[in-house]
Amino acid sequence: MRYLCVHKGPEGGPPTVKMMEDMAKLIAEMxxxxxxxxxxxxxxxxxxxxxxxxxxxxxxxDGPFTESKEVIxxxxxxxxxxxxxxxxxxxxxxxxxxxxxxxxxxxCEAPAFQS
Length: 115
Prior knowledge:
alpha+beta; Alpha-Beta Plaits; 2 helices; 28% helix; flat
């Protein structure tokens, strides 16, 4: 099963040296365990945009997104045997990054659409 883990937290400055060291250790462990497919951090929302469609009209809003209390800080794509395993890896990730929340979503595989 593949899961997308999206971390949302308060937008702040760059990560500390310790956080980067701890994250590198966790990423190495996840890679060695064969569960990490890819992971990336996101730049500040000031460099982003939101595209929305409502009532047939498309609007684009450039960042920063000051109305948001939490913004997407990064993601990981993992392959594990269960949702419980995805939760355990995500708990370890959140221990490294600190405040915020991570949403875990199982990705649809082609057979999931067949009955």
